[in-house]
Design brief:
The protein is α+β, with helices and mostly antiparallel strands and 242 residues long. The longest helix has 12 residues. The chain folds into two domains: 98 residues, no CATH class; 121 residues, no CATH class. The N terminus is likely disordered. The protein is 23% helix and 36% strand. A six-stranded antiparallel sheet has the order 1-11-10-9-8-2. Strands 3, 4, 5, 6 and 7 form a five-stranded antiparallel sheet that branches.
Length: 242
């Protein structure tokens, strides 16, 4: 009876569920995908925050004077309308490049309105209300004209081949968490650890394993959810993966 109680307690404290999904791929078969083993904790290189990268860290399809990325919040979660009033977070890739812009160029890129869609979306769920943010990329070309990139196909066309960590981080903007990667056979094996506290006090550790090609497409995805009510375990995981 004592052993039964201990086992029951463990089951209540920690619950684990695993779901594996292989995305449809035009380049790799399921059999080929199985040759790429998921990264272990601390394996591979850590992707830095976008704020730590410079313009020289990206190899664009065409040269530009400057570009940044803004995250626009939905004004009404279910209307699909974007609003600057909810605020936006911008990633500027080179403040020195920005300072070289003329006052007119600075005003023009600052005045760009968000497109109706974005190349990536982050969803935040709080009770029954869903809140989402979409990403737009704004840039100034070598002729001082301003443009907005708001679809994934346009983003890939802007970046060209995904061949730097900064470009990989851009493609992963919609996926929160700490990313680690390893390059193999012209593909990226990526592990993402996302650790957060639920509103009911349960701590969740989501582990995502992805394979991305150099066109920015995710060839496969495997996700594992680990839930625990132990705050000590939660603090340990935060420290471990940061």
């Amino acid at each position: 009876m004592k052993i039964f109680k201990i086992v029951l307690l463990v089951l209540l404290i920690v619950s684990v569920s695993t779901k594996i999904t292989f995305a449809k791929s035009g380049t790799l078969t399921q059999k080929q995908l199985k040759h790429y083993k998921p990264l272990k904790a601390k394996e591979g290189k850590v992707l830095k925050s976008l704020t730590d990268y410079m313009l020289s860290d990206v190899h664009l399809a065409k040269p530009v004077k400057y570009f940044d990325i803004k995250s626009y919040s939905l004004d009404k979660p279910y209307s699909g309308k974007l609003s600057r009033s909810r605020g936006s977070t911008a990633w500027s890739f080179d403040i020195k490049a920005y300072r070289k812009l003329s006052n007119k160029e600075k005003k023009e890129i600052a005045s760009l309105h968000p497109a109706s869609d974005g190349f990536g979306t982050t969803y935040y769920i709080d009770g029954t209300a869903g809140i989402a943010s979409v990403y737009n990329l704004h840039y100034i070309d070598m002729n001082s004209k301003v443009h907005t990139v708001f679809s994934k196909s346009e983003l890939v066309g802007f970046l060209g081949e995904i061949d730097t960590p900064a470009e990989m981080q851009i493609m992963l903007l919609s996926y929160p968490g700490i990313h680690r990667y390893k390059e193999k056979d012209n593909l990226y094996i990526i592990r993402t650890d996302d650790i957060y506290e639920e509103s009911d006090g349960v701590y969740t550790h989501e582990i995502y394993h992805r394979i991305m090609n150099k066109q920015g497409s995710v060839e496969s995805e495997r996700v594992k959810f680990v839930q625990s009510s132990s705050r000590k375990r939660y603090k340990y995981l935060l420290k471990k993966f940061k």
